[in-house]
Each structure stands twice: as C-alpha cells, then as structure tokens.
C-alpha cells in the first residue's frame, strides 16, 4: 500500500496521494468488489507516481480520473474475455487420486514379477501373441509345432500368469501345496486337481480359500450340471439341500425322490456345520448308459471320525438327537461311502440312481 | 421371521412358512413354548406344510416340542406333512411318534374333540390316523 508517510517530502507526490479519496469514489461507482476497487486505486496511484515528472500540477486531477477509468475498463474487458474463454480452461479429465500412481506402480510390478516367473520360452510366446499380435498359426511355424498345441500352451501360460500375478500382489502362500493347487484351479485342470486333492486343500487352507475366488469363478461356469455349496453355518444346510433338490429335479428325479435326496444332503451338511469348521457339498448330475443319477460329495476339513462303524450305527448320537444322520443318509441313497482321517477331515460320497 | 403363531380360541396355530434351518427351528420351539404360557393354550396346531424337508434334526425337534407342550398341558397336533416328506421320514427310518392330521381343518377338529372330554375321540382316531392318546 502507498500511504502518505512513505513518500513524504515531494509536494507533487503529496498531491497525488491526496487524490486517493477521489479515486476511490470514481472507481467505487463503477466496480462493486471492494478488493478490486483497492487494487485499481493502487494501480492508478502507482502510474501517477511513475509519470509525475511529466505532469504539471493542474493536470494531475483529470489525469488521475482518466487513468482510473481506463483501468476499470480494461479490467472489465479482461473479466469478459476470461468469461468467454472459461470453457477452454475446464479440465474434463478425472483428477488423479493420490494413491493411483502407487497402485499402478504396484500392479505393474506384480505383472513384471509374474512374467519373470514364467519360463523364458513361455513368456516369449505369450508376449508375441498378446503384445505383438501374432496368431497361433505363424507361432506354430516358428516353433515347429501345431496351432492347437500353441493355443494350449498359451492357455497354460495365462493360467500360470494369473496365479503368479495374484501371489505377487498378496504375498507368498503358506504351504508348498498352495501354488500347484492354485495353478490347477486356474488352468481348470480337473485331473491335476484330483491328484492334488485340491478340494480338500481349499477347505483346509485359509490363504488359498480366499485367493482362489477369482480363479474359482471361471471353473464354476465351465460345468452347468454341477453345484458347489460352501457349508459353514446352519443356513448353508438349507441352501445345500435346496440347491441339491434343484439338481435332482434337473436330473429327472420325481418330487418324492428329490425330497429323499434333499433329506440326505441335509443330514450330511448338518454334520459339517456341527463338527467341522468349513466344508463343501458338491452335487453333480451323473449319466451312465442311459441311466441318470446324482452324485453328492460332502467334504470337510474337520477333526475326522475316530470310529466310523460307531458313527454309522443307528441311534449313536453326539448331541442327544436321533442318531440317524449318517445311517439315515445311507438308507436314503443307493450308494454310500465314507472316508475319514482323524485330524484331517471327512468325505462322504453318496449316489442315487434314477429308476425309470 | 418365517413363522407365525396365532391364537384361535383355546388353541394356538403355529405355522412355518419357509424352510427353517436348525437354529431357526430351535427358536421356533422356544417361541411356541412361550406362547402356550402367554395364551394359556390347551391345544397347539403346528403347520409344517411349507417345510421342504423334515430330516432327523427337524423331526427330533418337533417331537421334543410336542412332548414339552404336553408337559405344559397342551395337546399338540402336527398338520400338513407333505407326501414326499412323509415318504422320506419313513425311508430315513424315523418314528415321529406324534399326533398328526392331514390339514389345519382336521387338526382343529381333532383338538376340539380331545379338549372337550374325548367325546368324539374314538371315531376321530380312524379318520386322522393318529397314534397318540
């Protein structure tokens, strides 16, 4: 701010400073914003002081007023131009969130680690196909292979990449069993899953149970005539028997037979809830030489049954019930098999065939 | 909640409207016992027509409920067991050991007959296929 004290001495300067009040009125009549008024008055005073050597005493007043008016006018023009061009300044892109670059970096790192873990040959083929866009035919020529074999190899590489990507993000799995199990799930390789007893591992290993979900979905879609119901709480028993009934009806069973199957599923699912921490019931449609049926597999990672003969004995009960769970299910179904290992878990496999 | 317990004169009509899991069945049992006391009910009809499955636990808890209600002075009749469910109960090898009636109407008739001094008791037995009393 320019105030009389700063520029004392020079009479012309003092005269200019005394014009402040007049200028404030002149500008104030044209501009509403008080801060803008102050700015324009200051600017006018600065220009008058700069030009004071060229001014004589009488011209100062009118000169000051004209300068102030011009400044107001040019300020209006600037505001107007600014308004007209405002849309050019709008940034329509989403603002970058502070964590975004970090997440991107983590993802890129995870993909890099996952790619590193592929065998060099696998990686080269995958990159050639996905990044460079080469088709399986031309790749097969290079590798002295067939397009089908290259496609199968690409499928396996992708499955491996998915697993390694998830592991790079989530950290190394707790057991040596985890990686092969996740790989078999990702690849949808049922033979390998069977060899590794992947179903049991998923019940037993919390890490894989949570990791496998994105890999699971693909697999679930692959087969329509199979349902898989995770069983941990009471309500899951109802879900398991209802889904099981639907599958039974789909397999051609009558309402009565479907209810019998649902009852057996209810019994064995209850055992999972009651005795094991976590389990799974799988109901699959079977077809064999024109006959059809359902296969029910209930698997858990619970404490196991020390004496299976006793458990299958009618009236033997652990909670004061009827003691009909396992023996009743055996009676309801055509085939019934139970295997259990203390400390590892129990698997009940039962089948019912459709009588025509 | 998937159950309702309504008063009808001296009787309670407890209906299950959807498949119940084990803990819901236990809660149902408790609720019916409480309502028997609240309404000083002499008879209870339990309508299980909407139950999809009556497995060993379901049958066990219903049987217990009937026995407990009897100890509290209320006669109980189970109505609406679906034919498929009945078949499964027999296949499973269970003795349900409770009084049953085909539907709500027959159940009410039965309760009226037993709570008014067994007047129609003998003729009702054949109709209802009851193995209680």
Describe the structure using short key phrases.
heterodimer; A: about 350 residues; alpha+beta; Rna Polymerase Sigma Factor, Chain: A; Arc Repressor Mutant, subunit A; Heat Shock Protein 90; 3 domains; five-stranded antiparallel sheet; B: about 130 residues; alpha/beta; Transcription Regulator spoIIAA
As a whole number of angstroms, the C-alpha radius of gyration of chain A is: 41 Å
Number of domains of chain B: 1
Count of individual beta strands of chain B: 5
Low-confidence stretches of chain B: 119-133
N-end to C-end Cα span of chain B = 33 Å
The 3D shape of chain A can be described as: elongated
How would you briefly describe this protein structure?
The complex is a heterodimer of chains A (356) and B (133). Chain A is of the alpha+beta class.
Structural features, described:
The complex is a heterodimer of chains A (356) and B (133). Chain A is of the alpha+beta class. Chain A has 3 domains: 4-83, Rna Polymerase Sigma Factor, Chain: A (Orthogonal Bundle); 102-213, Orthogonal Bundle (Arc Repressor Mutant, subunit A), CATH 1.10.10; 225-353, Histidine kinase-like ATPase, C-terminal domain (Heat Shock Protein 90), CATH 3.30.565.10. Chain A has helices spanning 11-18, 20-30, 34-51, 60-84, 86-89, 100-117, 120-130, 136-143, 147-170, 178-187, 190-196, 198-204, 206-211, 213-222, 234-250, 255-275, 308-311, 325-332; strands at 226-231, 279-288, 291-300, 335-341, 345-353. In chain A, strands 1-2-3-5-4 form a 5-stranded antiparallel β-sheet, sandwiched between helices. In chain A, helix 2 (20-30) runs parallel beside helix 4 (60-84) and helix 10 (178-187) packs antiparallel against helix 11 (190-196). The mean pLDDT of chain A is 85. Chain B has 5 helices and 5 strands, in the order ββαβαβαβαα. In chain B, strand 3, helix 2 and strand 4 (75-79) form a beta-alpha-beta unit. Chain B has a 5-stranded mixed β-sheet, with helices on both faces. Chain B has a single domain, classed as Transcription Regulator spoIIAA (2-Layer Sandwich). The radius of gyration of chain B is 14 Å and the shape is globular. With 133 residues, chain B is an alpha/beta fold. At the A-B interface, helix 15, helix 16 and helix 18 of A face helix 1, helix 2 and helix 3 of B. Chain A: Belongs to the sigma-70 factor family. ECF subfamily. Chain A: It comes from uncultured Acidimicrobiales bacterium. Chain A: Keywords: DNA-binding, Sigma factor, Transcription, Transcription regulation. Chain A: One of its GO terms (biological process) is DNA-templated transcription initiation. Chain A: This is Anti-sigma B factor RsbT. Chain B: This is RsbS, negative regulator of sigma-B.
């Amino acid at each position: 701010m320019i105030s009389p004290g700063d520029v004392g001495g020079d009479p012309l300067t003092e005269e200019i400073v005394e014009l402040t009040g007049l200028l404030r009125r002149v500008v104030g009549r044209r501009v509403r914003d008080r801060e803008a008024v102050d700015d324009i008055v200051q600017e006018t005073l600065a220009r008058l002081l700069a030009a004071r050597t060229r001014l004589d005493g009488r011209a100062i007043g009118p000169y000051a007023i004209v300068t102030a008016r011009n400044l107001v006018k040019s300020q209006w023009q600037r505001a107007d131009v600014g308004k007209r061009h405002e849309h050019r300044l709008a940034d329509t892109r989403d603002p970058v969130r502070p964590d975004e670059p970090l997440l991107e970096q983590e993802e890129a790192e995870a993909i890099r680690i996952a790619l590193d873990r592929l065998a060099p040959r696998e990686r080269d083929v995958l990159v050639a196909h996905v990044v460079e866009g080469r088709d399986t035919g031309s790749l097969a020529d290079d590798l002295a292979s067939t397009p089908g074999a290259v496609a199968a190899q690409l499928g396996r590489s992708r499955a491996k990449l998915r697993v390694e990507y998830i592991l790079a993000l989530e950290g190394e799995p707790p057991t040596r069993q985890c990686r092969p199990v996740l790989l078999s799930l990702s690849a949808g390789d049922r033979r390998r899953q069977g060899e590794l007893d992947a179903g049991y591992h998923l019940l037993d290993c919390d890490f894989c149970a949570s990791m496998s979900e994105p890999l699971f979905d693909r697999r679930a879609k692959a087969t329509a005539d199979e349902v898989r119901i995770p069983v941990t709480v009471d309500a899951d028993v109802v879900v398991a028997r209802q889904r099981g009934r639907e599958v039974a009806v789909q397999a051609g069973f009558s309402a009565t037979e479907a209810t019998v199957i649902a009852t057996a599923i209810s019994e064995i699912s209850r055992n999972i809830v009651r005795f094991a921490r976590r389990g799974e019931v799988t109901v699959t449609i079977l077809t064999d030489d024109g006959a059809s049926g359902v296969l029910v597999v209930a698997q858990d990672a619970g404490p196991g049954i020390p004496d299976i003969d006793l458990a299958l004995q009618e009236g033997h009960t652990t909670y004061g019930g009827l003691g009909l769970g396992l023996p009743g299910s055996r009676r309801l179904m055509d085939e019934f098999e139970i295997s259990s290992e203390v400390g590892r878990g129990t698997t009940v496999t039962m089948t019912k065939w459709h009588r025509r | 909640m998937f159950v309702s317990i309504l008063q009808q004169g001296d009787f309670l009509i407890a209906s299950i409207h959807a498949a119940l899991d084990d803990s819901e069945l236990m809660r149902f049992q408790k609720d019916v016992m409480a309502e028997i006391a609240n309404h000083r009910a002499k008879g209870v009809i339990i309508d299980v027509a909407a139950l999809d499955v009556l497995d060993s636990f379901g049958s066990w808890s219903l049987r217990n409920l009937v026995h407990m209600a009897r100890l509290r002075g209320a006669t109980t009749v189970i109505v609406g067991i679906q034919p498929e469910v009945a078949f499964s109960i027999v296949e499973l090898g269970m003795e349900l050991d409770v009084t049953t009636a085909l539907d709500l109407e027959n159940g009410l008739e039965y309760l009226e007959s037993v709570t008014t001094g067994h007047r129609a008791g003998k003729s009702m037995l054949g109709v209802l296929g009851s193995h209680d009393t």
